[in-house]
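Something for you to look into today, if you have time. Could you write out one complete protein record for me, on any chain you like? The space below this message is yours for that.
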Amino acid sequence: QVQLQESGPGLVKPSQTLPLTCTVSGVSITTNTYYWNWVRQPPGKGLEWMGAITDSGSTYTSPSLKSRTSISRDTVKNQFTLQLSSITPEDTGVYYCTINSLRGSTAYVYRGSGTLVTVSS
């Protein structure tokens, strides 16, 4: 059974860096053909694809977030992580980690339950 679980701070102050971790079970993050994604949904808005890491460790990020986004992985722990820097209240929302085979897509084969991040001083 494939499961994804996001973890990270629920409350972050503006200008700080947001660290999120996705812990994966039931499938290895080195499995071929999958993209391991970060997707978010601001309050009252649609889903936004943020970036992805592949089975080989290559990373892709949304052009709008490229300068602030870093995605990495720990193959021993079977986790992949997101770091979003210089955050503002506009980064408030629910953050999901997902698995799919379409780069840049918010569609998913598997998805975590999401973690709410609030940016506030």
Q: What stands out?
A: The CA atoms of residues 46 and 93 lie 10 Å apart.
